[in-house]
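Practice record 12: protein with guanosine-5'-monophosphate.
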Amino acid sequence: MTYDSTNIFAKILKGELPCHKVHEDEIALVMMDIFPQSKGHTLIIPKAASRNLLDADPTALAAVMPLVQRVARAAKAATGADGIRLAQFNEAPAGQTVFHLHFHIIPIYEGVALGAHGGGKADDGELAALAKDIAARL
Ligand code: 5GP
């Protein structure tokens, strides 16, 4: 499987499509998932192009993991979640729907069931507010 640069996250990285941006640096873009599985569901998208973990450059992986940790901490602090799930899917049978490597930070609230993966679209105002709150804690 090869990387297809027409995927939706590549377009967001190039600024061709909008997103609720939390953070951007030379390594990655961090944005809110617009079909969140829970309040505060955030995505970390490395700028280095790869389909997923399987074809990623180990150096790019090493560079992005500290940011994944920072976002996990910031999302937990911003939402008051009881825990954080880190998810990452590789190829369609495993649940991957966008074929540019990304990490999901999914806040977990005790007693609250997670929404479906790729379920309903969230309110833009709520996503914008969450992006601001998480950014303030990074
Ligand atoms: P995957 O299934 O590939 O691991 O995850 C793709 C994620 O991207 C899903 O959780 C889905 O909700 C999210 N997503 C799909 N399209 C868009 C989009 O246009 N913008 C944002 N911010 N998230 C998207």
